[in-house]
Amino acid sequence: MSAGTGTRLAQGGLARLGEAVLDRIDELGRFALLSAATARALVKRRFPALETLRQIEAIGARSTPIVLITALFTGMVLALQTGFALARFGAKPYVGTVVGLSLVRELAPVLTALMVGGRVGAGITAELGAMQVSEQVDAIRALGADPVQKLVLPRVIAATLTLPLLTVLANLLGLLGGLAIAATQFHIAPNFYLQTILNIVTVEDFLSGIGKTVVFGWIIAMVACFQALETSGGTVGVGRATTRTVVVASISVLISDFFLTQALLML
Question: Residue ranges per domain, the chain?
């Protein structure tokens, strides 16, 4: 390979890298514009209350079974692993301490967000993406209505409100799952298990986990709506957008969890 050919290949690679970076920056700009439009739609007249209630039922109530099953077995396996680990140091009775802190501060909020993000994010993108490629969104604009207020805002509000409630349920069921394993596997008295949790887990721990889920809910709904409104290419495009939503929402939840945890620990 000649030096000139190598130089051209390097320049071509840099050009493609630059285009990819510019595309991501442009995408972030469009996402910011949609977020701003959603915030403005919140204060407009004719708030879509009925659609918001419908989305709360679709996002919150219908996600409850999968969240509760995930939380139950997470608490059980966490108690199981913790019990055997603490037994090496003679601290097996304090399984509830580790289970309580781990669930309340991290596992319940993050796992709830990931499960809801996979289920709800994909559903929102598929629904709105189909409307986008079939020009129903354009029809809403032609009728003089705001598609952001009609379609995006109710889903963002519903996800932001329901995710903290689902996390509270996940905390309760996860702790009960840990209690079941602690009592049956390690013969720890239920009263002692619960007392160790109450002695260590504070209100601040509980609120820090719940507070993060508000951000997670906003991220999931906004990413799903953004990918849906960016959909093109017919049914194939809807499938691609749905996949991108699940991937981007999951990664965004994990990244934001790190920074939110850092910020909350500094308070």
Answer: 21-266
Distance set, CA 170 to CA 59, 83, 85, 188, 213 (Å)? 15, 21, 24, 22, 12
Contact 104, 209 (CB under 8 A): yes
Q: What does the pLDDT look like over 168-181, one tens digit per residue?
A: 999 999 999 999 99
Rounded Cα gap, residues 124 and 248, in angstroms: 14
Taking the C-alpha atoms of residue 256 and residue 182, their distance in angstroms, rounded to an integer, is 32
Strands (DSSP E) along the chain, which ranges? none
For 179, the token pair is 């209690």
Judged by phi (left if over 0) then psi (alpha if -120 to 50, else beta), residue 45 lies in beta
pTM: 0.89
What is the CA 19 to chain-centroid distance, rounded?
29
Q: How far from 73 is each of 79, 102, 170, 171, 176, CA to CA, in Å?
A: 10, 14, 10, 12, 10
